[in-house]
Amino acid sequence: MKILVGVKRVLDYNVKARVNADKTGIELANVKMSMNPFDEIAVEEALRIKEAGDADEVIAVSIGPSQSQETIRTALAMGADRGILLETDELLEPLAIAKLFKHVVEQESPGLVILGKQAIDGDNNQTGQMLSAITGMAQGTFASKVELNGDTAKITREVDAGLESINVTLPAVLTTDLRLNEPRYAKLPNIMKAKKKPLEITPVADLDVDVSSKLKVVEVNEPEQRSAGVIVNSVAELVEKLRNEAKVI
Amino acid sequence: MTTLVVAEHESGALRPATLNVITAAKAIGNDITVLVAGDGAADVAAAAANVDGVSKVLHADDAAYAQEIAENLASLIISQASGFTHILFAATAAGKNVMPRVAALLDVSAVSDITDVVSADTFIRPIYAGNAMATVQSGDDVKVISVRTTAFDSAAETGGSAAVETVAATEASALVTFIGEELSQSDRPELTSADIVVSGGRGMQNGDNFVMLDEIAEKLNAAVGASRAAVDSGFVPNEYQVGQTGKVVAPNLYIAVGISGAIQHLAGMKDSKVIVAINKDEEAPIFQVADYGLVADLFDALPELSKALDG
Ligand SMILES: Cc1cc2nc3c(=O)[nH]c(=O)nc-3n(C[C@H](O)[C@H](O)[C@H](O)COP(=O)(O)OP(=O)(O)OC[C@H]3O[C@@H](n4cnc5c(N)ncnc54)[C@H](O)[C@@H]3O)c2cc1C
Ligand SMILES: Nc1ncnc2c1ncn2[C@@H]1O[C@H](COP(=O)(O)O)[C@@H](O)[C@H]1O
Questions:
Q1: Scanning A142, B28, B39, B283, which has its CA 20 to 30 A from the CA of A37?
Q2: β-bridge pairing B176-183 and A162-169
Q3: Distance from CA of A1 to the nearest CA of B (A)
Q4: Is A132 domain-assigned?
């Protein structure tokens, strides 16, 4: 069985996003970019499934600019077998990303596609669900545990009131939640080896996939800032202020 | 122009989140139809019909809707979607699970987590953990949207008198079966709708120490939340997590205890009315958003706070 994992190149989670001067988006020049953290969890899960003998190949897929090769190389250094970059400089909506993943699914026929639950740039939380819908593969989102069982998998999911578990028939699309695993770091020798692993690059424009979107970003603004508060000197003062000044208790 | 609101419910009652979504639907300005899917959910349909501003309720009853299986709900919604210009969900775990499927099946973009309605086709939504607000305009014939519940007031539960129409169920997916759930039981207010939230972070050191927060929450009739670090360390279950990738809360009072204030945590609580931070590190970023900061060891401050609340 093959496993496809999505690896998106995003602004590093430690960097505070700043709106650019012309208010069209976020300033991305000269800032640290990394693999979307949920995608590291996806790569790790795929590798563990392979190491347990339930998969023979892990393919890392990224859609984005040429620099996304670095993100794929990171996945390869973690242990993925090969990479696919669908190259575009356009910012694509999740529906377009899902359609491009569908194209790869049709070529590779994976038993599992593992994506992150959300990309921490757009915070959309859409792609996995959309891919499941348009391919007809089963959906298991926000996974905190994945147990393979022949041609089905038991997925434990993080939901608002706790955990729930479902059984999905493979092939399936899964999305990762934070507690699924702790991703490994790529070791130096593996980073060297990863440079020799195959990475196939195809321009999105060469594919017969409709990536158009009717959703336009009109403008991007800074959020309202909170004004600085005060430091209180004691618990007694805190309680007094909450009672008499803020009147919230 | 009509908006379809997909209801959420449990134990025979609408979830509060649905009332927030109905307010967002009112802001869009169309007639509002509510879809209630469930297994024995006639009471919920009746309750939805009473909500102020609702002009029609569609009710589908079938075992396929006993749980929130995304495949089954999406196919029902698609079967009813014709004629609607907007389809709205709450941006809850359940809503996020289904909403993008519905958009993809209609071949339209989805708009996640809106916090404001500018006009019937233009919405504001946070991106990058709320460090930027994007104004987006949809040219799609059907706008499929999830709504950040804390950004909209609750619609009144009475005042409406909509007709309830029964609609046919669609076939259940053979690919997914529900196995079970482990839900935490609490008499406390629900985290996302509580007036006061008391949250603990890594500084709490272990799960047992959360008893100190429980005690304060009890006295304030508050919900208890947590940072990701506290959840990852196993102090409390996943459903406590507040933040960019957990729950978003905006209570009247948010008390952060032993939480540093990482971007991802702030994303889930910075719209609270009043923020209190208790942290022994005066440099902790949480103080930059706190209305009242107390630089103290939480193991001294919490027992004192608990006592002060008795007085
Ligand atoms: C993809 C991704 C998603 C994430 N999503 C979320 C999310 O949704 N929610 C979230 O919260 N985080 C999230 N995080 C994690 C986030 O980046 C931080 O790591 C996390 O919020 C830190 O939790 P903390 O403040 O409890 O721990 P720490 O940062 O370790 O802070 C502990 C604080 O406790 C204080 N302290 C320690 N002992 C005491 C004491 N005795 N008395 C008083 N103060 C004390 C310390 O001074 C410190 O400030 C996410 C991270 C990633 C990468
Ligand atoms: N451009 C991309 N390249 C690779 N994977 C992506 C891309 N965009 C989204 N994904 C995958 O889809 C997940 C959810 O993204 P989103 O729906 O944008 O929040 C991510 O965690 C990735 O696994």
A1: B283
A2: antiparallel
A3: 18
A4: yes
Chain A residue with Cα closest to B242 = A160
Three-class HEC string of A163-185 = EEEEEEECCEEEEECCCCCCCCC
Query: Would you call A122 and B295 a contact, using CB atoms and an 8 Å cutoff?
Result: no
- Looking only at the bridges linking them, the beta strands covering B86-90 and B143-147 are parallel
Q: What is d(CA B298, CA B206) in angstroms, rounded to the nearest whole number?
A: 13
- Which residue owns the Cα nearest ligand 2 atom 7? A8
Structure tokens at B153: 């007031």
Query: What would the mean pLDDT of A130-137 be, rounded to a whole number?
Result: 98
pTM above 0.95, yes or no: yes
- CATH number for A92: 3.40.50.620
* Nearest-angstrom CA–CA distance, B138 and B28: 13
Q: Is residue A247 part of a domain?
A: no
Q: Which residue of B has its CA nearest to A210?
A: B107
A35 is in which domain, residue-wise?
2-217
Residue A225 belongs to some domain of the structure: no
Predicted complex: ipTM over 0.90: yes
* Residue A179 in domain: yes
The answer to whether residues A4 and A110 touch, using CB atoms and an 8 Å cutoff, is yes
**For A197-242, how does the pLDDT look when each residue is reduced to its tens digit (9 = 90+)?**
999 999 999 999 999 999 999 999 999 998 879 999 999 999 999 9
From the list B82, B60, B83, B84, the residue with the least C-alpha distance to B72 is B60
In this complex, do B128 and A123 lie within 8 Å of one another by their Cβ atoms?
yes
- One-character DSSP codes across A131-170: HHHHH--EEEEEEEEEEEETTEEEEEEEETTEEEEEEEES
* pLDDT tens-digit readout, A78-107: 999 999 999 999 999 999 999 999 999 999
Residue among A10, A16, A129, A146 with most chain B CBs within 10 A, to mutate: A129
Contact yes or no for A170/A151 (Cβ under 8 A): yes
Contact between chains at A124 and B112 (C-beta distance less than 8 A)? yes
- Give the helix/strand (H/E) hosting B57: strand B56-61
Q: pLDDT (tens digit, 9 = 90+) per residue, A109-122?
A: 999 999 999 999 99
Number of folded domains that form chain A: 1
Strand partners, B259: none
CB A188 within 8 A of CB B107: no
Q: Before A171, cis peptide (omega within 30)? A: yes
